[in-house]
Each structure stands twice: as C-alpha cells, then as structure tokens.
Amino acid sequence: MDTTILLFLLQDGVTNGAIYALLALALVLVFAVTRVILVPQGEFVAYGALTLAMLDVGRVPGTAGLLIVFAGLALLVEAWSSRRRLTLKLAGRLFLYYVLPPLLIVALTWWLAPMRLGPVAQALIAIAIVAPMGPYLYRIAFQPLAEASILVLLIAAVGAHFSMTGLCLLFFGPEGMRAQPLLTSGFTAGPIPVSGQNIAICLAAGGLMAALYLFFERTILGKALRATAVNRLGARLVGVRTALSGQLAFLIAAAMGALSGILIVPVTTIYYDSGFLIGLKGFVAAIVGGLVSYPLAAAAAVFVGIVEAFASYWASSFKEIIVFMIIIPVLLVRSLTTTHTEDEE
To answer: What pLDDT score does 320 carry?
Structure first.
C-alpha cells in the first residue's frame, strides 16, 4: 500500500464516518430521551435516499403516500386514546397536527416534483416529507409503551423496522436508485481528488452537529430534551411534557436519517432494504459511545468508517464482519466494568 492508496482510504473512511456519525447521534438522542433503541433508523435513510432519487427524475415519490399512511394511523391512535375527552378544541388540534401538515406537504410535492428544481431544493423537499414520519411513528408504536421495559421497546422497534421495510418495498419497488450529487465541483488535495459530494457530506455532517449543540445548549426545547434524558420523572414533575420530548427526538432522528440518505444516494445505489445495514454501522458507533455520549459516538463513527474502508481494501469479502466485530470488545469491557441495575430504576 502506497501513500496515495492510504489517502484514498482515509478519505473514504472519513466520508462514511460522517454519515455514521449522524446516525449514531440520532440513535443516542432517541435512546436517551425515550429508552428506545431505534432499529428502524436505517429505514429513514432509505426513505430519504429513494425520495430524492425519485424527485431527481421528476416523479412524485412513494414516501408522499407513506406520509399519509403514517399520519392517518397516528390520527387513529390519538383519536382513540382521546375518545373520552374529545372536544371541538381537541379535534381542531388533531386536525392541525395530523391532517393539515401532511396534506400540505403532499400537495406541494405533487406540484413541485415535475419541476425538477435542482438537488438542494429537492433535498429539502425530501427531508420535509420524511421528517414528520418520525413523530408519527413514535405516536403509533412507542408512546403507548412509554413506561414499558427496554426489552419491550426493543421488540416494538424490531416490529417497526420490518413494517417500514415492507412499506418501502410496496411504495418504491425492488429496484435500486441513485441521484445527482448535491455539489458537482471539487478540488485536488495532493495526489487525490476530493469530489464535491464528499465535501457536501462533511459540511452537512459538521454543520448539523454544530446546530445540534446550539439547539441543546441555547433553546428551551433542547434543554427540555436534555432534562428528559437525564430524569424522565423529574422532567415530568417540573412541567416537561415527556411525550412531546419523545416526538421531538423522533422528529430530529428522522430528519437526520433522511439527510444521511440524501447524502449517500449520489455515491451508492440504494435499495428498499439498504438502510438497515447502514443503520447498524451507526448503531456500532452508538454502542461504543455507550448510548449516552454524543462526542464519543461521533468519534467512534469516524473510526468505524475508517475500519470499513481499510477492510474493503484488505478483505472486502469480510468487511461487514470486521466492522461489526468492533462491538465485541466494547461489550466485554462494559459487561465487566458496569454495575447491573434493574430496568425500572
């Protein structure tokens, strides 16, 4: 291996690691706030990628229909749980939250999709379509189980993953898709070219991490999420609506997943089930971070990306195995050094 190959592999590793960092941060956020291990995080990646790919050819994406499905199911669940206290005011709130936003988004998508507005505008439309699915998914599958054990929440997450994968196959079909890059210009750094899409990935990941830091440090909603993550009962006692915190965490996770899919679909072909494997690599980074540390999860994600790049060069047939083996020593160390506590505590 010469220096040029080494630099190419490092570039690929850092680029992939930036994507995994976004997914790892979303997983850590959701687990800290809701205790849900978000197995279907990868599906949001596939949804965002395939949505952009269809918008790129001027077609209305299948996620427009999926958004209506998610909103309708969430509306039914919310209406049933509120049936004994349903008033005109509450019905208006349900309409403003579960009916009006998805209808507006779908109507705008039908209007704007044939115009092919360009990569950046289409990326924003894709995020607008996929992001609301996060809180709707939380309302359907996880909010009714908010006080259940982590094991029950994990089983629900696995069920949501299989359901979302099947819906993705139904609305998008089995064919793989790609899209145009967000940035086409690049530059040469020494012996290696740096593509515009790699620049876009690193800038988007870095910018979103900085935005999340400011959100958690400077805004009331961010501090409410932090309070819920530290102590759900204490947050509820001081007036924080933990259900709203859970929906907000899922909204952020879905948006980050959609952004990750948008960033990778120009460089790799995405299928309806591609998101699961990508999400698992983000999960490895989140586990290294203990599902609590954002900086450690981000650093671990870059490490996972670099390991994957070098494994692809040295042993491409076993690269997935090598990546997932990273989790074994981490789990062993944590099992030997962490004191066991009951889930209810």
So the answer is: 83
Which residues, in sequence order, are CB contacts of 247 under 8 Å at separation 6+?
Answer: 134, 135, 138, 139, 143
Q: CA-to-CA distance for 28 and 294, rounded, in angstroms?
A: 7
pLDDT at position 238 over 60: yes
Is 263:19 a contact under the CB 8 Å cutoff?
yes
Distance CA 184, CA 340 (A): 51
What is the reported pLDDT for 214? 87
Question: Where are the domains positioned within the chain?
Answer: 3-337
Comparing CA positions, the residue from 292, 272, 120 lying closest to residue 204 is 120
- pLDDT tens, position by position, 129-165: 999 999 999 999 998 888 888 889 999 999 999 999 9
Residue 188's φ and ψ, nearest 5 degrees, are -110, 125
145-172 burial code (b ≥16 CB/10 A, e <16): eeebeeeebbebbeebbeebbebbeebb
**pLDDT per residue over 290-319, tens digit each?**
766 778 888 888 888 888 888 888 887 788
Query: Which helix (H) or strand (E) covers residue 74, if one does?
Result: helix 63-81
Give the phi and the psi of residue 328 in degrees, each rounded to 5: -65, -55
Give the 3-state secondary structure of residue 188. Answer: strand
Question: Distance (Å, rounded) from C-alpha 314 to C-alpha 331?
Answer: 26
SS3 187: strand
Q: What is the DSSP letter of 177?
A: B
**Contact (CB, 8 A) for 34 and 225:** no
> CB-based burial of residue 223 (10 Å sphere; 0-12 exposed, 13-18 middle, 19+ buried)?
middle
Backbone angles phi, psi at 309, to 5 degrees: -65, -45
- Output b/e per residue, 248-274; b: 16+ Cβ within 10 A: bbbbbbbbbbbbbbbbbbbbeebbbeb
